[in-house]
Amino acid sequence: MKKIINLILFIAILSTPWLHAQDDVLNPYEGHSASAASENLITESYQIPSYNLYLQDWNNEYLKIKSLGISFGNNDDIKIILVESHNNAFAMPCDMYKITSKYGNRKGGMHTGIDLALTKGAPIRCCFDGVVRMAKEYSSYGKTVVVRHYNGLETVYAHLDSIYVQPNEMVRAGQQVGTAGSSGRASGVHLHFETRFLYEHFDPEKMIDFGSGDLISNILTIAKSELDFDTAPEAPAAAQTSAPAPTPTPTPAPATANNAPTTANNAPATTNPTPKPTSQPAPNNTANNNNSGSVIHTVVSGDTLYAIARKYGTTVDKLLKLNNLTENSKLQLGQKIRVK
Ligand SMILES: [Zn+2]
User: Fold this and answer.
1) How far is the CA of 101 from the centre of ligand 1 (A)?
2) Domains of the chain, with CATH numbers?
């Protein structure tokens, strides 16, 4: 019966001109429409991607408000599934580029992203499905869009000429979020593109092959050492309280760098370094790793009990029993789940 209702709904959608029009408006390659966008705004916290992973932090003001400890369990790295079957495929942030500056240390400070030279007005597109966390003029970054994705990553698109999306708007992989420009502190027209996990930046070339224009692998492995936990927070210290965030103060750009942003434009370093994340032992479970025949699954971002059960051809009930879990138990990254 349900199938029949779905079929009827599907046919109704196909034959409704009004919905056709909506579809057209939402086409990522068409222009931006404010009315379409407003219908796509998230309204509840459960719609925020990776909300619990980010310890319920969601703000539209700052790129990085504070360092969040990452529980690596007993592992030295973390594995992230980039695209899952229920999400749209990865899309390159732009076409036809030339890498003009790589990620990493350079004169003037740490370069927190990769620079891709483009022509003014070239389309800039979102890499994965997600929700826009920031869309605004942001100090030396200029016009900037930050998107939080369902895979747990955030991507940053800076120095834009125009922004096509608004904060809290749901976006899809390949959807245009703006056009290339040189806003903020940019020496010429280019996209400053960043990849971040739990606010910490890492080299985009770890994830994307900029030669072939595709993901290197659908599983991204990030070692603890590759995340820069010691970077001073970008937001003023006061913003770290629970009080509403104050108006961001423009931070001075470094005099020598002509390809901002760098971490040199972060809030002034304090003598107290940001605490390193404590490595927490994996939660106890009844799994006996030495028991021959047992299979242990390490939880990666995006995992659910249902997904794990499906992957190993078992049921959620069996997983709950094997691991002394309840249906409300929250999975943690790096947690070992006995599946057999
Ligand atoms: Zn840059």
Assistant:
1) 7
2) 2-30 (no CATH), 47-265 (2.70.70.10), 296-338 (3.10.350.10)
Distance between Cα 139 and ligand 1 center (Å): 13
- pLDDT tens digits along 88-129: 999 999 998 899 999 998 877 899 999 999 999 999 999 999
Ligand 1 centroid–CA 212 distance in Å is: 21
Structural contact between residues 31 and 162, judged by C-beta atoms closer than 8 angstroms: no
Asked whether 239 and 232 are in contact (CB, 8 A), the reply is no
User: pLDDT digits over 306-332, tens only?
Assistant: 677 766 677 777 777 777 777 666 677
Q: How far apart are CA 102 and CA 251, in angstroms?
A: 23
Q: At 199, list the tokens.
A: 């606010």
pTM for this prediction? 0.62
Other beta carbons within 10 angstroms of residue 38's beta carbon come to 11
| Rounded (10°) CA dihedral 204, 227, 50, 153 | 0
Burial class (CB in 10 A: 0-12, 13-18, 19+), 287: buried
Q: How many Å lie between the centroid of ligand 1 and the Cα of residue 270?
A: 25
Q: How far apart are CA 154 and CA 134, in angstroms?
A: 11
Rounded-to-integer distance, Cα 35 and Cα 25, Å: 9
Cα(98) to centroid(ligand 1), Å? 13
Q: Is residue 86 a contact partner of residue 310, using CB atoms and an 8 Å limit?
A: no
Separation of CA 58 and ligand 1 centre (Å): 24
Give the Cα separation of 111 and 107 in Å (integer). Answer: 9
Q: Cα separations (Å) of 50 from 138, 149, 154, 212, 266?
A: 23, 7, 10, 29, 25
**For residues 132 and 37, what is the distance between their CA atoms, to the nearest angstrom?**
11
